[in-house]
Amino acid sequence: MSTYETMPFHLETERLILRPWAESDAADFCALLAERGTEAPTVEHIRAAIGKLLTATAETGIALLPVQRREEGDFIGYCGLIIGRSTLEEPEIAYELFRHAHGRGYATEAAGAVLDAAVATGRTRLWSTVGAWNTPSLRVLEKLGFQRDRVSTEDSGEVVWLTRSLP
């Protein structure tokens, strides 16, 4: 069991709300994953994945949260903490937004709120892994104070590992 506080699962910023997953998010989540250009999972598969995310959240005290715009109320992506390629002690920050939501600072705003939530858990360091081709994501992490640690090569290509110490 973790020695860290549970992260808050409801975060609000000036323009965004990050909240726990609901089954009703499945179709939007499916559409987001379809934007990757690979074969999209079915809505039923995504419903099951949401169940697994909620179970993992209960077990780990960290969460990947849906991001919705406050005014419009629409789902635009997700952001949160995951174990990913890292550990529960030093989790990864992860985010993905619909293309129509890119370039407006939403990823930076959401990730900033998640960073504050990570600090509240008592953690001292976060990681992020990003495809070397993904300049916009690397820029978001740079704005949030992440530093390059190393680059690894995976089946998907080069992956940049970044880290950020927390106060």
Commentary on this structure:
The protein is of the alpha+beta class and 167 residues long. Helix content is 31%, strand content 29%. The strands form 2 sheets. A 5-stranded antiparallel β-sheet has the order 1-2-3-4-5, with helices on both faces. α1 (26-34) packs across α2 (43-60).
Descriptive tags:
8 strands, 167 residues, alpha+beta
Question: What is this structure, in a nutshell?
Answer:
By secondary structure, this protein is an alpha+beta fold.
Which helices and strands occur, and which strands form pairs?
Blueprint: E1 11-12, E2 16-18, H1 26-34, H2 43-60, E3 64-69, E4 75-82, E5 92-97, H3 106-120, E6 125-131, H4 135-143, E7 147-154, E8 157-165
Antiparallel strand pairs: 1-2, 2-3, 3-4, 4-5, 6-8, 7-8
Helix pairs in contact: 1-2
Mean pLDDT: 95
Give the number of helices: 4
Low-confidence stretches: none
Q: What fraction strand?
A: 25-35%
Estimated structural class: alpha+beta
Oligomeric state of the chains present here: single chain
Shape: globular
Strand order of the largest sheet: 1-2-3-4-5
